[in-house]
Amino acid sequence: MAWFKRQSKGIQTPTEKKKDIPKGLWYKSPTGKIVDTEELQDNFYVSPEDDYHVRIGSREYFSIIFDGKFKELDANLTSKDPLKFEDNKKYTDRLKAAKNKTNLNDAIRTAVGKSMGKDILIACMDFSFIGGSMGSVVGEKIARAIDYSLQKKIPIVIISKSGGARMMEAAISLMQLAKTSAKLAQLSDAKIPYISLCTDPTTGGTTASFAMLGDVNIGEPGALIGFAGPRVVKDTTGKDLPKGFQTAEFVLDHGFLDFISHRKDLKKKINLYLDLILNKPIRE
């Protein structure tokens, strides 16, 4: 009767790790819903049955928001190891492993292109690269992206997906909070729009700096958004936390977000608010 026994639990590889999704594979959402990966891709990487927004990376967000072609900026920028950090594993070895695993050079990519016909710059974080941690390269690429926006006078969208500061760069990582915030102040003075999109998860130093400084702050449904994780907050305060604490819906109710957007509406919503900020006719 071994014919009727399940030999494995099936393929549940996260969608964001697939470059070209082969036919016949399936994705299982946290609620147990099964969806074909091709259908998932066609549905903006959202499970159609339970509306679960699968964690995706820069490649997928670029394809969703840009009209098509885009030009990547500072693609070859990589981290060094000025502190000679070593804890069980050398930082240089961690960087090499992350690059080989993800085909990325760091936890953020920046690119310029058109969205609904207008020029736009997008900086998108990748959680798959050392947990989307914010090190010197993340801060520098955001700073350079803002300089590009200032020079070309085009709006910028930053998509956050981060576990916080990169411990292997210590104080250098923490300096990126002030660096990115100062550059965004220049952008604000120049009256150039900045939209922040907080995805799952947006935590730590990212939340404490650029993620919450947008002219408009958007969240994705169900995304974890906060500074410290729920367990740390509970241990620190010694109190039980409210149900749904730090979800995008909870954060919206308490004033940290302006609205939550379903991923299929994301491109239209971003352009709608850019038109409103720039006082331009709204495009359908």
Question: What does this protein structure show overall?
Answer:
The chain is α/β, with parallel strands linked by helices. The protein has 2 domains: 1-53, no CATH class; 55-277, 2-enoyl-CoA Hydratase, Chain A, domain 1 (Alpha-Beta Complex). It has 9 helices and 11 strands. It is globular.
Named CATH architecture of the largest domain: Alpha-Beta Complex
End-to-end Cα distance, whole Å, is: 59 Å
> Which topology of the largest domain does CATH recognise?
2-enoyl-CoA Hydratase, Chain A, domain 1
| Sequence of strands across the biggest β-sheet | 3-6-7-8-9-10-11
Percentage of helical residues?
25-40%
**Total beta strands:** 11
Summarize it.
By secondary structure, the protein is of the alpha/beta class.
What are the key terms here?
two-stranded antiparallel ribbon; alpha/beta; globular; 33% helix; 284 residues; single chain; 2-enoyl-CoA Hydratase, Chain A, domain 1; 9 helices; 11 strands; seven-stranded mixed beta sheet
SSE topology sketch:
Elements (H helix, E strand, L loop, with lengths): L25 E3 L5 E3 H6 L15 H8 L4 E4 L12 E2 L1 E2 H12 L5 E8 L2 E8 L10 H17 L3 E7 L7 H20 L4 E9 L1 H4 L8 E4 L10 H8 L10 H6 L5 E2 L5 H12 L7
Parallel strand pairs: 7-8, 8-9, 9-10, 10-11
Antiparallel strand pairs: 1-2, 3-6, 4-5, 6-7
Helix pairs in contact: 4-5
